Please model this.
Amino acid sequence: MPSPLRIAFDAARFALLCGTFLFGVRLARAEIASTVYLNGVASPVYFNDGDSFRVLDGDMSGTKARLAGYNTLETHGPVHQWGGWNAKELYAIAKMATLNARRGTWHCESDLSRDGYGRILWFCLDLARDQILHGFAHAMAVGKDVGHPVLLEAQREAMLARRGIWAKGTPTLMMTSNHSIAESTGEAMGENYNRLVSVVDGHSEKMVHENRYGECENVCATVDAPTREGALRVLGKLRENGETAAVVKGVADPHLVSIINEFAHLKKMPHVFRDSERAIVERHLSAWLADGAFGPLQKSIASCMRYVSFAIRYSATDKPECLKW
Model:
């Protein structure tokens, strides 16, 4: 009998091919209004994907929103890949995130500041938590910030249950955007980067590069990772050492492995535990890395994302083959 996840994938794919969506029929060009409370005011909005919407009526009618604190996968085509997933399966999950957002009533707050695309930045804790608990999204913060603790806790629950995007593997760092150097003014070195997000604390890393990508090129983020045996050896040391054992008590093994893998690559502790406790774990991990307990680190692909220039991602006439399904 097919698994529930397989059935969900097939249902989402069927809905996409037919031009209709589950949980309320949606004609190809119609817009379903969902109710979102914007700074306390009930407003009709249209979710074009799982983490952004456009206000349809009221004082903010016509404004576009980018939802902070979490990220859903790209919906312009099957572009993501990691672990045992193929791009089409993850594309189906991206569409499921959109459907999930459209079905609920959510509450968002904002100081009305805008992002680089002119979208108002809103924080919708109930929506973000629901998306993450279903495994339709992951926690994400920009700059030096880390994820909201409520969202990180929801993510740990979803990861342990292997829901949604976590069902076939957990990447050390997740690529959420990529850009060709051709997009940078003057093509100056250092202006261009791909964004990578920690699955442990949600912080973002910039992978600066000067690469020119071709349309549909599969761009991958590589990390310096221990072997499975090496990670489990360090996990054992964390459990056995008197100082670290007290800190990591109650933390599930898969989460500790994610911490170990991220530390091996970034050489710094993610923002988990209290500051004093984090310092203890970081000190021991640094010593074990130096004395060879991690074993030899190997280049490993963490996650990949097909590059498609923004100008043609949603084109009706010039859509590249890799985005067609």
Q: What stands out?
A: Residues 14-28 have pLDDT under 50 and may be disordered. The first strand starts at residue 34 and ends at 38. The radius of gyration is 21 Å.
